[in-house]
Amino acid sequence: SQKIEQNSEALNIQEGKTATLTCNYTNYSPAYLQWYRQDPERGPVFLLLIRENEKEKRKERLKVTFDTTLKQSLFHITASQPADSATYLCALDRAGANNLFFGTGTRLTVIP
Amino acid sequence: SQTIHQWPATLVQPVGSPLSLECTVEGTSNPNLYWYRQAAGRGLQLLFYSVGIGQISSEVPQNLSASRPQDRQFILSSKKLLLSDSGFYLCAWSPYYNQPQHFGDGTRLSIL
User: Using an 8 Å Cβ cutoff, are B59 and B46 in contact?
Assistant: First the structure.
């Protein structure tokens, strides 16, 4: 069955460093992959979408890579700030279905 | 611009009572609509999605049901709640299935 794994449940980094979050998937070849940010007791907020034919996507301090050979996406936040502390979710399109398949998320804490 | 409204924000219900959660979208027409449940420490579990009025697809068997009586209204219901129905319920919309999803603020449902 399709499976999504996000590298760790929680990640702590020092302010100003680059945070790198990992999303691995198996038994699947998605056409695109999305990243969302979720704050406690709030709905996820869309950040970036990357398609299978794109290697990299950037938006301000955010960068996403998509390696369909490794079946992996990396999500980077450069010059991290305490305000970046949140849970980050990756999501893949589901073949033949009109919806997304979400990972369990990585809780990022940026320490001042 | 488009907005999504979901209410109530919190709800405490006794076991065996009925449930009705409502979600409405403004500023767009014929959106794809979704209901998710998020248990503590778990990812988003897709419950139902709809691509049009009266069209509902169920992802998991459960004692919940969904309806879409109007183009931008999506309702999640239950006739008799179970303890296992506790969780954080999220409504979302997207213009098309492979586009980013936009979430409401969620309903925290506690069953006593």
Answer: yes
